[in-house]
């Protein structure tokens, strides 16, 4: 049995892990250049060394017993640790948020830089076509990308399912990265705004375990502000969120020695409430945080649940 998984984020790789050892051939495809996705880490060279920014997901929490076991394995492997600078029980990848994704991806030889542009029925399975024209013929497909991207991919073959998928939109997020020559004179390592604010979150990246380099801050706008200014100029966004951080900290910010902006079109998912989706007749599955809620843990539980559904549905075929 040959299964293609489109998307090598937390959900897709959790599904791959759940299917591993069951006798299936697994092909994992991802359009990104390397591990991370919304758990990416950005690195920027400065005169004081390399500044690092977790510019996507900032941390994750643990509620599900199965996910707790997985996190304990990551901790033992040294790629996850507690972020003790926060009051909450927060965990982060070490030395960057993408570390657990990198560790999960290693056994599967993920084909990075491979964007699936179309998929459709072929023989008794599916054919996937990439941006380069390469094709993959498989028995089953798992689509593990944000809801909007999943809907676009499956619409030609399964329009009703695509319509259901579009009903759970993902909120965008503008992110600003700032590096400074010296530590900002504040005891705060993180702060939250209100939904009505421009600045929804700011964090001193160096307060996370395993981080090195100059003082680095990550600023993330609220969903409402990001929606209103989705097409704004990145320099204007950086100025607005920097001013908001200055106001929150009640201190002037020094000129940054480096910085950048990133617009996440698909940042914070909705919640379709189904956990995962598996069509046992068409052999196509969907998984991701948008099926359970906007948390890293939800992505893992969704992928793990889908793997269980696939294994049960295939039975001896695997």
Explain this structure to me?
The protein contains eight helices and 17 strands. With 318 residues, the chain is of the alpha+beta class. The protein has two domains: 2-40 and 98-167 and 270-317, FAD/NAD(P)-binding domain, CATH 3.50.50; 171-268, Alpha-Beta Complex (Polyamine Oxidase, Chain A, domain 2), CATH 3.90.660. The model has no long low-confidence stretch (mean pLDDT 95).
What is this entry, summarized?
By secondary structure, the protein is α+β, with helices and mostly antiparallel strands. Helix content is 27%, strand content 28%.
List keywords for this structure.
2 domains, 5-stranded mixed beta sheet, 318 residues, 27% helix, single chain, 5-stranded antiparallel beta sheet, globular, Polyamine Oxidase, Chain A, domain 2, alpha+beta, FAD/NAD(P)-binding domain
Topology of this structure?
Elements lengths: L1 E5 L3 H10 L5 E5 L12 E5 L2 E5 L11 H13 L2 E3 L8 E3 L5 H7 L10 E7 L2 E6 L4 E4 L1 E4 L3 H8 L4 H8 L4 E10 L9 E3 L6 E6 L10 E7 L1 H6 L5 H16 L8 E11 L8 E3 L4 E3 L9 H19 L4
Parallel strand pairs: 1-2, 1-10, 10-17
Antiparallel strand pairs: 3-4, 5-6, 7-8, 8-9, 11-14, 11-15, 12-13, 13-14, 16-17
Total strands: the figure is: 17
Q: Strand percentage, roughly?
A: 25-35%
Judging from the principal axes of the Cα atoms, what is the shape? globular
Sheet with the most strands: spatial strand order: 2-1-10-17-16
Q: What share of the residues lie within helices?
A: 25-40%
Between the first and last Cα atoms, what is the distance in angstroms?
A: 6 Å
- Put simply, the count of helices is 8
CATH architecture of the largest domain: 3-Layer(bba) Sandwich
Helix-strand topology string: EHEEEHEEHEEEEHHEEEEHHEEEH
Name given to the CATH homologous superfamily of the largest domain: FAD/NAD(P)-binding domain
CATH class of the largest domain: Alpha Beta
Q: What kind of sheet is the major sheet?
A: 5 strands, mixed
**Backbone CA Rg:** 20 Å
């Amino acid at each position: 049995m040959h299964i293609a998984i489109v998307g090598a984020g937390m959900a897709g790789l959790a599904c791959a892990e759940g299917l591993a050892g069951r006798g299936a051939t697994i092909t994992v495809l991802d359009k990104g250049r390397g591990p991370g996705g919304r758990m990416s880490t950005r690195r920027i060279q400065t005169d004081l060394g390399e500044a690092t920014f977790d510019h996507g997901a900032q941390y994750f929490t643990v509620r599900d017993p199965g996910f707790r076991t997985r996190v304990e394995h990551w901790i033992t492997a040294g790629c996850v640790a507690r972020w003790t600078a926060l009051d909450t029980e927060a965990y982060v990848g070490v030395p960057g948020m993408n570390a657990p994704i990198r560790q999960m991806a290693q056994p599967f030889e993920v084909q990075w830089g491979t964007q699936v542009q179309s998929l459709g029925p072929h023989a008794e399975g599916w054919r996937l076509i990439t941006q380069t024209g390469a094709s993959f013929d498989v028995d089953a497909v798992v689509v593990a990308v944000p809801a909007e991207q999943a809907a676009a991919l499956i619409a030609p073959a399964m329009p009703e399912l695509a319509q259901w998928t579009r009903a759970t939109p993902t909120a965008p997020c503008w992110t600003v990265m700032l590096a400074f020559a010296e530590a900002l004179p504040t005891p705060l390592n993180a702060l939250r705004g209100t939904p009505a604010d421009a600045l929804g979150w700011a964090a001193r990246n160096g307060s996370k375990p395993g981080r090195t380099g100059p003082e680095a801050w990550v600023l993330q706008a609220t969903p409402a502000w990001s929606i209103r200014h989705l097409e704004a100029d990145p320099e204007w966004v950086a100025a607005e969120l920097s001013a908001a951080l200055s106001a929150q900290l009640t201190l002037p910010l020094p000129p940054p020695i480096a910085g950048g902006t990133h617009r996440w079109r698909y940042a914070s998912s909705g919640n379709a409430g189904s956990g995962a989706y598996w069509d046992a007749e068409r052999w196509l599955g969907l998984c991701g945080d948008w099926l359970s809620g906007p948390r890293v843990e939800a992505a893992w539980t969704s992928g793990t649940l889908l793997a269980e559904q696939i294994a049960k549905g295939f039975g001896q075929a695997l």
